[in-house]
Amino acid sequence: MASKVRSLLTPFYKLAHPDVLTKAPENIKSTNTNACTVLNSYLDSITQGQNASLSNLIFYVPSIEGDKYHQVRVTLLPFNQTKGVNVRELHLESTANNILQAIERPKEVKYVDEINPKTLRRPRARNEIAYDMHQQIRTIYRELEIKERRHRVLEEASFSIERELNKYHPTALGFESRRSNILIRQAVEAATSHTYDRNFERIGLSLDNLFIDEDLSTEQVRAAFWTLKGENTDTNSFNDLKQTHILMQKNEYPLLISTRYSAKNVPGYMQVPFNFVPAELNRFYNENCEEAGKRLNDFGQFADRVHDLLRNISRDFAPITIGRYMWRNQEEYEEMTYEDAFLGLKNLERIIRQNKLNYTKKAALVMGNAFKEREDVIEISSMFRDRDIVEFFTSLS
Fold first, then answer.
1. CA of residue 96 relative to chain centroid, distance
2. Pairing state of beta strands 320-322 and 270-273?
3. Is 379 within 8 Å of 330 (Cβ atoms)?
4. Is residue 124 packed enough to be buried (19+ CB in 10 Å), middle (13-18) or exposed (0-12)?
5. DSSP per residue over 262-284, as a string?
6. Which of 57, 77, 240, 268 could make an SS bond with 278 (beta carbons 3.0 to 4.6 A apart)?
7. How far apart are CA 207 and CA 193, in angstroms?
8. Residue 62: partners with Cβ closer than 8 Å, 6 or more residues away
9. Sheet containing strand 372-374, strands side by side
């Protein structure tokens, strides 16, 4: 029971555990450490058959932008150990779901990270990408839920609880048409608000391994979901889907539903088109696991090395990012290596400092493949001579 509930709380631990928030201020780390202690104690008391008292859970989660933290408050309801096992399990699942719902709707911004005095365009870390896309898929799939199926689940769960409380329950006597108790049904509804991924259980896919490109249309997302669920597919296609999901569990590289195949675009993710064919998906995943792992490792090293460079250039000259993160689905930027980008940024910082360059345009800089002016964006080649960069910025002023 305890492992199941902690599995449901995986998004909470990934976002709020103090070991994850390495760059957060100490007061936020301290608050989240206390929250983890309170929550673990609360869960342990219930799973061990003890009473649990009313508690307040307060913690912080990072914003998508990465420079702010949202405060989340959740009330942990009291629990009496005399209640049955089924009620205990339902209470724990309800608690987990209430925490996840609160994370999706944080009330207010309590702290702004002062490390970034200006708006800093930078490569998005893997956990930021995952959080952003996970929120997108939750929103989309809620729109696709079938009301009849949800109603049936609520009724069956409500009747189950009522029968535990009353051994002469009407449904046990054959009165199947009776509606369930409305108060119990409302409690069950809160506890089952995160069960929408069960449609994927028969092919072994968890929503933790599935993300959606925010640029896709609703129709494109529907098409991808239809294929992923194995609807109207032959036996071979269904088996291809299952084999792919087995590979995903083994290698832990999630799927990103987008418009093309790529193992390089988003580090650690397998990007596939929304109109994929199951056999092609299986072959692509099989052949590119090594590339995805290498890309993720390179990005991790790159992010550590480049953080100070991006901050210094953004503070002293102009906000700057890397090409593939400005136009994340453009194939031309995938061939620029992280080493090229790092060396280009290092040289740019040196030239700005030595030549005391001034930059007055209200535009962001992008370390890319060429010298170009775009709308509100200036692209700089990562491979340049000192004279070229000075002349280029002189021509812009």
1. 17
2. unpaired
3. no
4. buried
5. BSSSSTT-EEEETT--HHHHHHH
6. 240
7. 14
8. 15, 21, 24, 68, 69, 70, 127, 128, 131
9. 320-322, 364-368, 377-381, 372-374
DSSP letters, 179-216, are PPPHHHHHHHHHHTTT-GGGGGGGGT--GGGEEE-TTS
Other CB atoms within a 10 A radius of the CB of residue 288 amount to: 19
Rounded to an integer, what distance in angstroms lies between the CA atom of residue 210 and that of residue 133? 9
Contacts of 228 (CB under 8 A, 6+ apart): 200, 203, 205, 210, 241
Q: In whole angstroms, give the CA distance from residue 213 to residue 309.
A: 29
pTM over the 0.70 mark = no
Give the tokens for residue 28: 């936020």
The pLDDT tens digits of the residues spanning 11-61 come to 888 888 888 787 788 888 888 888 888 888 888 888 888 888 877 888 888
Residues 6+ apart with CB under 8 A from 358: 397
| Residues 6 or more apart whose Cβ sits within 8 Å of residue 65 | none
DSSP code of 323?
Answer: H
Structure tokens given for 273: 């088109």
Q: What is the pLDDT of residues 289-346, one digit of tens each?
A: 888 888 888 887 887 788 788 888 888 787 777 776 666 667 777 777 888 888 888 8
**Beta-bridge partner residues of 364:** 377
Q: Which tokens in the block code for residue 67?
A: 């420079």
How far, in Å, CA of 140 to CA of 8, rounded?
Answer: 20
> How far is 96 from 12, CA to CA, in rounded Å?
9
